Amino acid sequence: MGNSKSRSSQTSTAISALKVGAVIAGAALLAFGAVIAGTALLAFGAWSLSSSSDSSENKSRKDGVLDRSGFELQDHKGDDGYHATASRLIKVMSYNVWFREDVEVIRRMEAIGQLIQKHSPDIIFFQEITPYIYAIFCNSQWWQLYECSVPPENVTKKYFCMLLSKLPVTTFSNKSYENSIKEICLAKVDVGTNNHLVVATTHLKSPNPPKMNSSKRIAQAEEAMSLLKNLPNVVFGGDMNWDESSDGPFPLDEDWVDAWTELRPGKDGWTYLRPQKRLDRFLCKLRDFKIIDIETIGKKAIAGLSYHHNSMADRVYPSDHFGLLLTISN
Ligand SMILES: *[C@@H]1O[C@H](CO)[C@@H](O)[C@H](O)[C@H]1NC(C)=O
Ligand SMILES: *[C@@H]1O[C@H](CO)[C@@H](O)[C@H](O)[C@H]1NC(C)=O
Ligand SMILES: *[C@@H]1O[C@H](CO)[C@@H](O)[C@H](O)[C@H]1NC(C)=O
Ligand SMILES: *[C@@H]1O[C@H](CO)[C@@H](O)[C@H](O)[C@H]1NC(C)=O
């Protein structure tokens, strides 16, 4: 996908010079271009978009071994770490980007973009995307490599969750919670084997003292779990705003695991900076995949920046959350 890299080279300096409205208009155009480019690239790549149609699904899925050797024969030019090996790694990143546009938003989103380029996740879960942040991302080089759950014309909310994928997406969908306009965003992705993977992200009700809105958050968690429970392979991640001390254990059925506690028992795993809490989670129910690794990312403050926080100068991190990076394999 070499030529996609040069397609968008607008720098953040250019973005900062633009008025918000202009950025959004530009984003709409660029995103439209990206859809077309993405389709063309995918059609030539190992991951044919047409694999979501019935006839080719039949053809490519008849035999898992053939399927895999098909990948080997295809001249897949990705620099994204896919390899045609028997077991392939799938990386999923989750990041609450912090909707505060008044805190160095361009530099912060640039830092998050650098993390995306460094880790090259196959799938990204974002929370607290504002229309302006959406526009910044649309103008970033890495954006071209992904298919996004939210097209430009659907950017209407003040902030929202979205899901990006380098792997072909069979369907995107949304389901809002019964007690809120907040929703769970899902995608069924084609991982090139017989096994489909469903990935889902959400941002559960934020805690407000004194009662911390636990009951509302617990109801949302239970609703999400019940929506996902019959799927064989699910990665559900995002800002769960979860704190065991007020909310109790996350309502996981027995075939689910919390990837962090599974792989790093006894490690704090803070994903929120002030106060330090493990608000963000990756919850997995995997029949045909296994969890390989999980780590927190974006923990370095951005050099040379500060902002006023509680009447003190404070360091600026890419977000007020850390990101999470999960690796699974089939
Ligand atoms: C798909 O496969 C099934 C069973 O293998 C076969 O009966 C059917 O005709 C195939 N459909 C297409 C469109 O190839
Ligand atoms: C965009 O919004 C419309 C109207 O709510 C919805 O029907 C459609 O599915 C959305 N498209 C995507 C790709 O999210
Ligand atoms: C899902 O929700 C987002 C944010 O509210 C919206 O922009 C998008 O169009 C929705 N997608 C679908 C498939 O409905
Ligand atoms: C959240 O909790 C606070 C009190 O702790 C309450 O005033 C508020 O109404 C709750 N919000 C919702 C949406 O339940």
TrEMBL record:
InterPro entries: Endo/exonu/phosph_ase_sf (IPR036691), Endo/exonuclease/phosphatase (IPR005135), TDP2-like (IPR051547). The chain crosses the membrane at residues 20-47. Keywords: DNA damage, DNA repair, Hydrolase, Magnesium, Membrane, Metal-binding, Nuclease, Nucleus, Transmembrane, Transmembrane helix. Gene3D superfamilies: Endonuclease/exonuclease/phosphatase. SUPFAM superfamilies: DNase I-like. CDD domains: TDP2. It is found in: Nucleus, PML body. Residues 93-321 form the Endonuclease/exonuclease/phosphatase domain. The keyword Zinc does not apply. It comes from the Eukaryota. GO terms for biological process: double-strand break repair. Its cofactor is Mn(2+); Mg(2+). One of its GO terms (cellular component) is cytoplasm. This is Endonuclease/exonuclease/phosphatase domain-containing protein. It comes from Dendrobium nobile.
